[in-house]
Amino acid sequence: MQEKPYVTVVIPVYNEEPNLPPLINRLYPVMQQIGRPFEIIFTDDGSRDDSLSILSQMAEKYPEIGVIEFNGNFGQHMAILAAFEKSHGEVVITLDADLQNPPEEIPRLVAEIEKGHDVVGTIRQKRQDTLFRRVASRIVNITTNKMTGMQMSDYGCMLRAYHRNVINNINRCEETTTFIPALAQTFSANPSEIKVAHAERAEGESKYSLYRLIRLNFDLMTGFSVVPLQLFALMGILTSVFSIAFAVFLLIRRFIIGAEVEGVFTLFAILFFFIGIIIFGIGLVGEYVGRIYQEVRKRPRYVVRKLHGFREN
């Protein structure tokens, strides 16, 4: 690492003990074949297995590898941001440790950056995920594009390439909750997307439960757009107009037909519907207020316990 790296590969790790040896066995030769100086930065996000021990051994064996050891579990995106701050490459690649995105695709991303693009996204082909995850992913992609105005085909694929200019702008941000692909897109002047292969997870299970996926999507939508609030305001206006029209209808009906009690349960049903809308709106506003609360506390986004293998460039 005496020569400044041209390519940096950033890999967040959380309980990936069985996947790390095959990962480095595939990744290291790929990086050597590129023929340019490189570095590989792992961030251990509070792993409870032997991931950190394996990463420390890698850092001792390979001079191009550095390991950031977190004090606890701060999440995938915070792990990536910590590595961004330590990176030196002109081209920065993010890669998951589970080998579902083949490291062999990295040269294609580097070539795309060298064509003049500053952000290169990827689209997973023949995804080896469950039907539920594929359908949910498609719904999220469509919904998020509509709400944020961005045009990304696959928000969930973390195999991406960024130019140093974009990384520098990301490093200037101090958000406590964010979604890196969308954040990078806001700084991009010439983005691109390519199709990449996708493999079935070899070992272990996905770290994203249904709840965490929902939380991530809330962060994505509320962190990059106020459209949800605007839609709710529009819904409130339409509901108010409908309520006035319905009240007028009931008044006219009372004069024509007279007093009746048969519709009382219908009124209760309508009332419960409106109450549901109100509760949903309160939750939505609370989501934005919660984000503001997290930001104003100014707590550290993550805590680094120790650095392994980093050398002066």
Automatic annotation (TrEMBL):
<keyword id="KW-0808">Transferase</keyword>
<feature type="transmembrane region" description="Helical">
    <location>
        <begin position="264"/>
        <end position="289"/>
    </location>
</feature>
<feature type="transmembrane region" description="Helical">
    <location>
        <begin position="231"/>
        <end position="252"/>
    </location>
</feature>
<keyword id="KW-0328">Glycosyltransferase</keyword>
<dbReference type="InterPro" id="IPR050256">
    <property type="entry name" value="Glycosyltransferase_2"/>
</dbReference>
<dbReference type="InterPro" id="IPR001173">
    <property type="entry name" value="Glyco_trans_2-like"/>
</dbReference>
<dbReference type="Pfam" id="PF00535">
    <property type="entry name" value="Glycos_transf_2"/>
</dbReference>
<keyword id="KW-1133">Transmembrane helix</keyword>
<feature type="domain" description="Glycosyltransferase 2-like">
    <location>
        <begin position="8"/>
        <end position="168"/>
    </location>
</feature>
<protein>
    <submittedName>
        <fullName>UDP-4-deoxy-4-formamido-beta-L-arabinopyranose--undecaprenyl-phosphate 4-deoxy-4-formamido-alpha-L-arabinopyranosyltransferase</fullName>
    </submittedName>
</protein>
<keyword id="KW-1003">Cell membrane</keyword>
<keyword id="KW-0472">Membrane</keyword>
<keyword id="KW-0812">Transmembrane</keyword>
<dbReference type="GO" id="GO:0099621">
    <property type="term" value="F:undecaprenyl-phosphate 4-deoxy-4-formamido-L-arabinose transferase activity"/>
</dbReference>
<dbReference type="GO" id="GO:0009103">
    <property type="term" value="P:lipopolysaccharide biosynthetic process"/>
</dbReference>
<dbReference type="GO" id="GO:0005886">
    <property type="term" value="C:plasma membrane"/>
</dbReference>
<dbReference type="InterPro" id="IPR029044">
    <property type="entry name" value="Nucleotide-diphossugar_trans"/>
</dbReference>
<keyword id="KW-0448">Lipopolysaccharide biosynthesis</keyword>
